[in-house]
User: What shape does this take?
Amino acid sequence: MRHFFVPCIALLILFFSAAAVTAALHAPVDIVAPGAELPAEFKIGFFPWPQPGGPGTPIYLTYSYSNLLDGGLGLSNADLRAATEEALGLWASNAPLHFTEIADAGLAPHDPPTPHPGKLPGEADIRIGHHLIDGSGTILAHAWLPFSPLHAIDADIHFDNAETWATAPGGGSFDVLEVMVHELGHSLALDHEPLPPTGNTAIMNPVYSASYSGLGTAFLHPDDIAGIQFMYGSGTGSVSPIPEAASVVIWALLGGLSVVVCRFRRRKQAA
Ligand SMILES: [Zn+2]
Ligand SMILES: [Zn+2]
Assistant: This one.
């Protein structure tokens, strides 16, 4: 019962740190719903997202970039958007999850120490950003499970901005794509899958595994797919980013309007 009141931060930790593995085993993420010990061994969090029509019917979720695109992770916005959209698309290709980007609203990423009423009007279901978590190493990122017992910043994802990030493993960097796929799993209510031999190999294992080799190479393991489909049924969803072209058109129109206004004023002055 004590676990009910523990914040369910999900941790992704370094592969080769025994201390980190120990920390993961004792992390408060282990809030497991009754019946989670299923043959497939995947674990689900406290509450999945509502699905009024039942398994296999569409679920519509919004996402936004809180401060992810402010340069704090040292990656280009194009790469960060591509990694996010690929990660969302991976989950959406295995379950009827429809993700739509909206403009961000809400406080800067932080971890509230006290209960919080939950998402406020205008805030995306999944806000993605970064802040300093624990410095370089150990915890790379964390996500809050949806409908966490504290109704904190449900389903939000925070990257540790003290790490060196890249779009592929290697060179002392961590692959933002793998971490994004993993953390989104938490946002969708998947808990950590124990490492083999206790559990199965999964992106939802609690340790970073450098499994991918760059943008366009992400995949899920059978255990991850079994977990997401156990909660939401099989099917396919979609990812709908805010079209960048539309943004350009809007700005162009606004620019055009300002030119019109300036010309109008000049003519008035001339008159
Ligand atoms: Zn995790
Ligand atoms: Zn955080």
